[in-house]
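During the second year of the project, the team shifted from modelling isolated chains to modelling whole assemblies. The rationale, set out in the original proposal, was that interfaces cannot be judged from single-chain predictions alone. As a representative example for this report, we include one of the complexes processed in the last quarter. Its constituent sequences, exactly as entered into the pipeline, are reproduced here:
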Amino acid sequence: MDKKTLKTVSELRVVKHIKEVVASFMGKFDAVIIGGGPSGLSAALSLYENGEKSIMILEREGRLGGVLTSCTQDGFGMELLNESLSGKEFVSRLVKKIDECKIPYKLNTTVVAINKDKTIEAVSPDGGMMRFEAKCIIYALGAREKSRGSLNIPGSRPIEGVYSAGSLQKLLEEGANIKMKDVVILGSDDVGLSVANRLVKSGVTIKAFLEPQDFIQGSNYNKEKSIDNNNIELKLSHTVSAIIGKKKLEKVKIRNLKNPTEKDVEIDVDTLVVSVGLIPECSLLEDLGLSLSPSTNGPYVNESLESAIDGLFVIGNALYVHDIIEHITEEALFVGKLAYLYIKSLQSNVSTNQNSANKNGTDITLVEDGIRSLVPMTINTLNLKEFITLTFRVSKVVRSAKIVVFFDQKPYEEVLKSPLFPNVVYSIRIARNDILHFSPSKITVSLQELN
Amino acid sequence: MKKIYDCIIIGAGVTGAATAYNLSRYKGKFLVLDKENDVCEGTSKANSAIIHAGFDATPGTLMAELNVKGSQMMEELAKTLNVPYKRNGAMVVAKSESERPRLDELLERGRKNGVRDLRIIEKDEIRKIEENISPDVTLALYAPTSAIICPFTLTYALSEVAAINGVNFAFNKRVIGIQKTDGIFRVCTEDQSEYYSKVVINASGVYADVIHNMVSKDRATIVPRKGEYMVLDRSVGNFVKHTIFPLPTAMGKGILVTPTIHGNVLLGPTAKDTEDKDNTETTTEGLETIKKKCKESMKDVPLSKVITSFAGLRAHDVRHQFTIEENKDVKGFIDVMGIESPGLSSAPAIGEMVSEIVLNILPLKANPRFKNERKPQINPRELSRKEYKKLVLFHPEYAKIVCRCHKITKGEILDCINRPVGATTILGIKKRTTALMGACQGSFCLPEITNILNEALSKKKRGLHG
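Output from the structure prediction step:
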């Protein structure tokens, strides 16, 4: 082919491209779901099963499934499907269902802005710059890992050998050739536990598994699978106090936080895996002007898990960091239904729709007392279903305590729950009728320790 | 026949790069050697990224002269080479009337050095232009000509233009010996390569004494002075607008609080002399000092938003001076030594000065084909919608966002790999694009960037363009 023909061919390609871009530039949907991980996919299925057909899922990776696609640890789906699947298998079932239902999605598509009028701006190599219009948005962007940097561990910054647990999972899953022999894991959240399990199974020595707090962060199931079954010693109240090694990681220093007089122990390692927790990924919401709760690090939401913007729902780890996948899928099913009702209410335009409901119902504020991560933050009485479920965590291991729910100053319900662990998300249900009957302006969930 | 260069520059930091850039205006064979695998791997990559106005240096010294000159040249240079630069102004803050004479002294020094628009401001005016200043601050020296810059991009841009105009770069070349025979220098590197040159320029930062002592009887000593820093997330980027200095001490300009050109907040540096020329470890002590000291000039510093910490080494000459001269005993050997702060600010003037020294030794002719430009780095976040739409139509890789925190696209990453003196490592991509520098510190994008790099490098090897 001579140069001239070549040019014509490439020009033709460009013309074809322009057509595609124009066609996919604008899209109007009843519901746009941002994030194609377990929560986003479950919400899409829920919307679909409720009868909603105008759905679009936007996923920034090249495949659906989110973080679970690199998770080989089993224990997923036990409550929902009654069998124990790996994260990969679990999420592939969700993806299969999405395909069966022919719910549309766009891959490699990164949302760069959400606007107050619920238009969404996104980019992708296939579609270029895109703008979507939505009646309702479900924000399901998951969480990101806290980095080594944010921990301020002194020492050097070797280019090789320090990984966050999630990115290590992903690298391994993609077949990266990472040489590991002696590993230290810092942080016992679920990702850390499952990485530990995976590494032991592949013949790597875990020289130390450290948790700065005095309790395990991850779920008990993962702890059993990882720590107990492999006989790994988990050192609670221990942290990495220094990282040593210029190009490659060579050593770390370990500090006992319970005993400050004890000298730091230096050990030879080639890999440090940092797994010290997740933070809800809410940068798009912050850009939109929504403030985040210091307790959950996610946005403020009402009883429908709707943010301060009507019809913008937030679910999954973007809302708060959950403990087990079932809570995420359950929540997504719940919000899927509410979102469906919300869309319908806009269409029928009746006065009882959620949009105008706020004008009629009463807003109740929820207050934390000795607990953390209480969700939701407000309740509007008009939108209540039969029950409202409140979820929360405790900040430390509590051997003996009761949880008291106050309607204003008056105790409404006492629930004896002890011991309580920080790695578990607890929930309380309150009947709608009780709320309407007592009509409190404030509901406090209080942890009262017993001696 | 062996190739004889006109000039070998040892060190590809900002000083070496500025020298190479200036020399590439002339016809000649030039080579830059560096012991690391990339440009900008020493002091140039770990500093305060400030273009100092020039009130700190002692009047009459070379340091003062080059600081003020370099700082005045920088705006134009940054514009020409597409380097992110902003004149944000600086303040040296004081807490009582008793400290006023020290501010007056700085003001006087600055005026003598030729720094424009310096003045002393007081309480209300300080708070008006910098709302989060500590309530203890009552007086400040205000220097509106102080600026912030991206030191990485500056060094890359200078190197790139030098390379476009014919300068060669060789990496992983640690110089272990230099001999001069029959007017020609033989430069030996650790990997057993040998290079020959008429002139050798020693721009090797903290190692400048080691290189100098290879040829000169007159011993030099460069003490690495470690500075530790902490970086705050862009979400608190509005916390500070100016570069806020405490009063300077014998050890340096003190712990400053400054915005960076990329929208972060930078706290630091500490100042501690070390012996190890590669010791860039952060320490508990250093990080604690930063936390404590930054609160003296600013109130409610959002320390919970720290995303990373790092340390760099200043090439501190025990005499605290810039030495830029042809060696008296060994003709053709040019030292560029002791380039500590304000070295970055002075870099354009240093480059010019060194090339003038070279011209006195070698009769180089002007390079008629010299091109003082490089292809701009496209920043999709600064384009209008229309421009962006057009860009991604022809270059869809600019619509694939890889770094979530800073929204860096695959197109930008490929571009930085495929440029002259392009990135060959993850760290190289990080410094050239700011991918991996955000709040997640790479936990999301490291796997993908690794893939892009490997793919692009193998394409480049096969002679294809990524």
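The first strand of chain A starts at residue 26 and ends at 34. Confidence is low (pLDDT under 50) at residues 1-24, 351-358 of chain A.
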